[in-house]
Every structure is written in structure tokens, then in C-alpha cells.
Amino acid sequence: MRGSCRGCSGKNLVELVDLGSQPIAHRLLSSPEEKEFLHPLAVHYCGTCGLGQICDPVDPEELYRDYNYCFSSWKPQPHIVDEADMICSQTQRHSAFEVGCNDGLFLDLLSKRGVKTLAGVEPNPFASQLAREKGFRVYTDWLSEPVCQQALAEFSGFETVVARQVLEHIADIDGFFACVDRLLIPDGFVLIELPEIETALSMGDGSFVWEEHVNYFTEPVIRGMLRHYGYEPIVSRRYDFSGVSIAVLARRTQVRAATWGLQPLSGHAVTFSQKLSGYGTLLRETLGAARDRGFLVVLYGVGCRACTVVNGLGLRPAIDFAVDDRSERQHKYMPGSRLPIRSPQALRDRVGPILCLLAVNQESESAVKANLSSHTDQPVECISLFSPNDIWLELERARRRLGLQTVIETGKR
Ligand SMILES: [Zn+2]
What we know:
This protein has two domains: 72-254, Rossmann fold (3-Layer(aba) Sandwich); 274-410, NAD(P)-binding Rossmann-like Domain (Rossmann fold, 3-Layer(aba) Sandwich), CATH 3.40.50.720. Helices cover 32% and strands 23% of the residues. The protein is built from 13 helices and 16 strands. Helix 5 (145-154) packs parallel to helix 6 (173-183). The longest helix has 26 residues, at 267-292. It is globular and about 65 Å long.
């Protein structure tokens, strides 16, 4: 295992959670017998700078060999309007370059707000083509020095560089900021949006762990990192998106702090593993009791967070099948657990109560609940599995209805 911190190079790495051997979460199976690539999945936390990290990440060649065909337009992202406004209120709106611009949704928002020159880089060939069709100059590639050179040959430098939900995927943080420095004009800005893990840690919610995220951040760590690379945070916002996300707009100062700063382990990090294990025990017990009382137990949503929770907490034996709205996922099998994935229409013939484990991000839950009630008139009990919902309160409600001991009485929380 890599023995030093990816951020500060310190040796003070503490294990946050070890989920053991896990499959690639986005790789759905065509048959329940299909062989899977497995990898060890553990997250460590630097007791000096506070950066969470997978010390032994899966080789990107293996991880991204089959593109994850995910387009911006698939996910509700109401917060990006606020981010576009944030950029436009602080800059001259000359130009912006987006790292991982996907199908150009965010570039389009900037364009509509009067940003004159827009470009981006996106490795997914299908998404980058969609962005080009919207009229943007987009390089189909990963961010690299040659891509920066090419962009600077065509444009003379950018006022703002945007990287939304990008840096958590990148092991070479130095290399990333070297590219941002290359692309920006001397007094430019960077907008960084990253998933935040403190909320999940406080809750004992393990769904944030994902092999595609090699870095894990809290807001103080994001600020410390930006200052270390010569950027002074000027505005930051917190959004309930994919769990919790933090966006920070920072101005280039070119004065680099010598270190990432000192962020000792939070109390939530210290107790996380134990809390996660207690939650898993209670959830399995609750699902078992529901089945004993005649409930059909289904998982709604088969995304990456769902995969981590089902496999990490050993929920497979307690779930009958999974449902998902996207037709391209239906008739496949979940990685690891090999739960069959069906259309929500599979609930139509059900006679008897249903316990539905909601494995969708909070911003999608109300739409999913409405969809659920259009497919069945049977009694449905829902348990949300992901923070920022209070996942213990969700469990508590279900346990009360099933006549089980309260969470407090079990002493697990
Ligand atoms: Zn560190």
C-alpha cells in the first residue's frame, strides 16, 4: 500500500473504513454467472492535512475501459444555475474552460449569461460530441499538458477554469493544478465543486465510498488545498447534490501556502467504521423482520452508491430484487450482489406489502416516490439509504411500524 498521503506527503494515514473485496460499481452484469473484476476497497484519512483517500486505487485503464455512458442531462442538477451565477457575479465573463464538461450543459449556462469564449475537455467521446454540437470547442481527452498547449494555441488563456465533480477522481493533484495554472490568466479564477464527506461520516453512511473517487474532501480540506496551490477562496456554497457537495470559487494569488494546513481527524471520522457496522446490523435485522411479516423487499435504484451499500453491508440475502427507471439497466444484474434489475412495472402484480429501500440521491426521491405509487396500490414502506437524509431516522420509522425495538433501545447509534 502507498504509505504516504497524496496531499501533504505525510505518513499519518489512518484507516477510515475497509469494505474488503468489491466489484466495479458501474459495471452491471449481463448474466448472474458473469465473472467480475474484484479489488480491495478501503479509505484512509490523513491525520495531518485531512484528505481522505484510496491509497491503492484501481488502475484507471481497468476502471474506465468501458465508458460509463452518463450524461449531465440524466441527473437533476438544480445547483448548477447557482454556480453559473456565482462565476458571473465575480468575473468579467471573458472566457471559461471546463474540465470534464460532459455534454456541455454547464458551458451552455455560462454562454446564456454572456461568457464570451467557452471551451472544455471531456474524455467520453459521446458526451464531448454532444457538447461540440452545442457550439463549444471541446477536446475529447483527459486533462493533460498537451491538451493545455492545444487550448492555449487556440485561445490565449482563460479567465475561469471550472472543475465540477472532477478532482475526487484524480490521483495526480499536483498535475491537475499544474494544468489549471497553465490554462488561467494571471489573475484568473477557479471553481471547484467536490463531494463533501463530513455529513456521511457523521451519519455512519458508507455510500460515499466509491472506487472512482480516489480523494475525499471536507470543506476545510478544500480550502487548505486551494491555498497550497496559490488560490484564495472567495465564495463557497453547500448543495444537497449526490449526497452533499461543496463549491468553492477561488481567485488566483500565486502565493502558495507551504502546506495544506492542519486538519486533525474529526470525531466523526474516528467513530465512523463502528457506526457503519452498527447501522448495517440494524438494517439487516429490520429487513429480515419485514420479510417475516410478509413484505416483499425491493431496492429502488442501482447506481454506484446503491452498489456500495448492498455489497458493503451484506444486504443481498434480505432483498428480493432491484428496480430501476432506466431501461438500459433493466434485465441486468447488480455487481457483486447479482441482484436482478427489473422495471418498476414488476411491482404491478404484487399483492401484499412492499418495503422499498430508496437508493437514489435525495434530489430524486420525490419523483421516485411518485413513480412508485403509480405502479402499485399496495401498502409501501420506504427506507432512504443515503445521507443527507437522516438514515437512522429512516430506519427508526420502519422499525416502529414493524413493532421492533427502537434504535435508541438497541444502543447502536
Ligand atoms: Zn495529508
